[in-house]
Write a structure and sequence with these properties.
alpha/beta; TIM Barrel; 9-stranded parallel β-sheet; 3-stranded antiparallel β-sheet; 8 helices
């Protein structure tokens, strides 16, 4: 099985004879296992809607997606929760063993491996009802978290699951601090989780997200006050990096979203904050918007390319696309600008949010609070959101984009 490494601003799969293959990631999130259903959404294939894991893998490979981020639930791992059976068509999804949580996860990973698609396991929620702004808040919770990591490494770190690239150590630790040595210090938490993983599975990578904190930034002489995107705040990681027991194992995996998730003044030429919306707004031209995305992403996490050797991979990005109601399509253009940034040296791609049509967004356009759903597939899970898919084709020019190699001994 490959040994995955993060160095020279790239991700490498290292074979049994030391051969190295650089890999860019055109990835996508496929959620559901972190919820009460305990299975990725969409697998209820019937005459009207739903699909199969075979079809998902075939579709992704056809469109050059080479990695899937699977959000998981800590409590489901520990109890080996049985997936909800009435949302899986077992006859059509013969590849999936849905008798337990871990058997379902194992079989999904193996089905994706058949198409040479890698998997990033994501410690997304603590329970189906608690996302967890911290990995733990007590010694008992910490023990449970490490036990869940041990279950994953014990059952999945083997040649049968060669395509697992690593573990996203905790999704969006937005209540954490960084580098202050307190009980909420995610730098220290990430080091503990990463070393726990590596002690049992030295071939995986540790994907490390950022925190959430208020920031100020001057762009072209204009000052902006904003908060990091949840998971995006890695401003302090340059001076206080995550250091693990093995070299070349850290991938910083920030999140960065468009205005459909939350309207930001830096996305606009002008406007007035009114609660969470921005009223009387005026949109930016393409070049200035791209500059704003570059400046804010560089401030949050892009600066790490200058201070550390590991790769940057966007753990989540995107959001609403085809339904953008901004007259000048600011929501679309923000995502397009970030994709271009992902092609710069030091980045190794990212994971679009999301395959699922159930993904919900609260703002469209920036002056209007709504609830809108959109994913790369439409609400039937049978048809493609063509404008979104065309936009993602821009990732096809990522450096080193290729299928993940399955090395022979």
């Amino acid at each position: 099985m490959p040994n995955y490494k993060s160095k020279q601003g790239k991700i490498f799969a290292v074979g049994p004879r030391g051969e190295e293959v650089a890999l860019g990631i055109k990835g996508i999130n496929w959620f559901g296992m972190e919820t009460g259903l305990a299975i990725p959404f969409g697998l209820w294939a019937n005459d009207m809607n739903g699909t199969t894991v075979y079809e998902v893998a075939r579709f992704l490979a056809k469109n050059r997606f080479n990695s899937v981020r699977l959000p998981l639930c800590v409590s489901h791992i520990l109890t080996n929760q049985k997936p909800q059976q009435d949302v899986i068509n077992i006859q059509e999804n013969k590849a999936i063993n849905a008798s337990t949580y871990m058997s379902a996860l194992s079989s999904i990973v193996q089905t994706l491996a058949f198409r040479n698609i890698s998997v990033l396991l994501d410690m997304h929620t603590l329970t189906p009802f608690e996302s967890g702004g911290l990995p733990w808040t007590s010694p008992t919770e910490a023990t449970a978290f490490f036990d869940a990591v041990d279950v994953l490494t014990a059952q999945l770190c083997n040649a049968k699951h060669w395509n697992i690239i690593g573990l996203d150590l905790k999704n969006e630790p937005h209540l954490a601090t960084w580098g202050d040595g307190t009980a909420t210090d995610f730098q220290l938490m990430a080091q503990r989780i990463g070393n726990c993983m590596l002690s049992k599975c030295p071939t995986w990578l540790a994907f490390v997200e950022g925190i959430n904190a208020p920031r100020t930034l001057a762009i072209d002489g204009k000052s902006f006050a904003f908060s990091d995107w949840w998971g995006g705040g890695l401003e302090e990681a340059g001076d206080k990096p995550v250091e693990l027991g093995l070299e070349s194992k850290v991938v910083y995996a920030p999140h960065y979203y468009n205005p459909a998730v939350y309207p930001q003044l830096y996305y606009l030429k002008s406007g007035t904050r009114a609660g969470d919306t921005i009223i009387n707004y005026e949109e930016l031209d393409d070049a200035t918007l791209a500059l704003r995305v570059q400046a804010t992403s560089e401030h949050m996490f892009g600066h790490l390319r200058k201070t550390q050797e590991g790769a940057l991979v966007m753990g989540e990005f995107g959001g609403l696309y085809s339904q953008d109601l901004h007259p000048m399509k600011t929501t679309q253009r923000a995502t397009e600008a970030l994709i271009e940034i992902m092609k710069q040296p030091g980045y190794a791609g990212g994971y679009l949010w999301a395959l699922n049509p159930e993904s919900a967004y609260q703002f469209n356009p920036s002056n209007t609070r709504v609830t809108t759903t959109e994913g790369l597939l439409d609400e039937t899970w049978l048809n493609v959101n063509e404008p979104f898919l065309r936009a993602m084709a821009a990732m096809d020019s990522l450096p080193n984009l290729r299928s993940f190699p399955c090395f022979t001994p």
